[in-house]
Amino acid sequence: MRHFCQLEQSVLNRLFLRVPQPFGDADHRDRLAVALGATLYVPATRSDLTATIMRRAGEGVMSMVLDLEDAVADDEVEKGLRNAVATLDELAARGAAPMLLFIRVRTADGIDRIASVLGAGVQVLTGFVLPKFTADSGRGFLDAVSGASERLGKTLYAMPVIESTSVVHRETRDDELRAISQLLAEHRPRVLAVRIGATDMCGAFGIRRDRDLTIYDVRVIVDVIADIVNYLGRTDGTGFVITGPVWEYFADHERMFRPMLRATPFAEHDAVLFRQQLVSRDLDGLLREIALDRANGIQGKTVIHPSHVAAVHALSAVTHEEFHDAVDILDTDTGGVQASGYGNKMNERRPHRTWAQQTLLRASVFGVTNKGVTFVDLLTALVDR
């Protein structure tokens, strides 16, 4: 598996100083978590699930969740479970996995059921997404993932989704996050990443954010996200990769506010019409939310439409400037301050060291762009292909 695999080699050479490197289930957990990128959710009941996975892999989707929870009606869960298992077995018969594949179950029993009937498909299964994860329900989920791993003879990862009211409500949040943190620490080797379920969080207050706003404009929810990152996203060895919440919109609409996408980068790259196309498809809000995810310590994102994948991945590639700043910062561990080679900032070696390490980890899976190449160039290449 490799990001931007849908681009021709000549395009990769034009865009990248260092092309993205392959990754897979056997990689270190931290690298695999960063490699998730845009994780596309698809109902496990789809009749053409195998063909859909193969098609999306060819379009650059590198992680997908076969959903048995919110995307599936109550009376179709059993059908979806059988279909997911059959799909995994069919993909395994074709050879190596085309992407990182997960199943989102409803209950811990669902994990046990899948483990009891899954055959060769375990070869292409990366793990399970655990919805509405709490300190009370979480232990059963994590024990089930451990049990499935032992039964099937493969390390299977867990991705808990933090979205319950015990985290959303202010009076219970600290105790709940502290308990979740302790529980996840007990199962650290098994936890790939922590996902944020902002839609359920908004539902607790009867909120549905407008497409002219990002989740960071919804104050009651951004407070929850900040606390999740504070408890679970620390870089001192106690935290995990936190992935961004879903962007719900992908169709044209009448706008109330001005577009959130600055015109200047597109004018500089002779892509003004391309900017208009992005705005018309509501991708300007998505691009801004991705940038704010990164600014708030979040990597990767849940997506529900394939058109969103290119935006997430274009903004995940490490720029030439970021890469050289990171290399300079890690060049010595003696501390001190040095002007960036770009002449526009100061690099402080000790406070910026963790940022630099994370940047080089991201560079290994998303690549380093050539000097002067921006997300506009990447997004244009991905969308126009």
UniProtKB/TrEMBL annotation:
<dbReference type="GO" id="GO:0016829">
    <property type="term" value="F:lyase activity"/>
</dbReference>
<dbReference type="InterPro" id="IPR011206">
    <property type="entry name" value="Citrate_lyase_beta/mcl1/mcl2"/>
</dbReference>
<dbReference type="InterPro" id="IPR040442">
    <property type="entry name" value="Pyrv_kinase-like_dom_sf"/>
</dbReference>
<keyword id="KW-0460">Magnesium</keyword>
<dbReference type="Pfam" id="PF15617">
    <property type="entry name" value="C-C_Bond_Lyase"/>
</dbReference>
<protein>
    <submittedName>
        <fullName>HpcH/HpaI aldolase/citrate lyase family protein</fullName>
    </submittedName>
</protein>
<keyword id="KW-0456">Lyase</keyword>
<dbReference type="InterPro" id="IPR039480">
    <property type="entry name" value="C-C_Bond_Lyase-like"/>
</dbReference>
<keyword id="KW-0479">Metal-binding</keyword>
<dbReference type="InterPro" id="IPR015813">
    <property type="entry name" value="Pyrv/PenolPyrv_kinase-like_dom"/>
</dbReference>
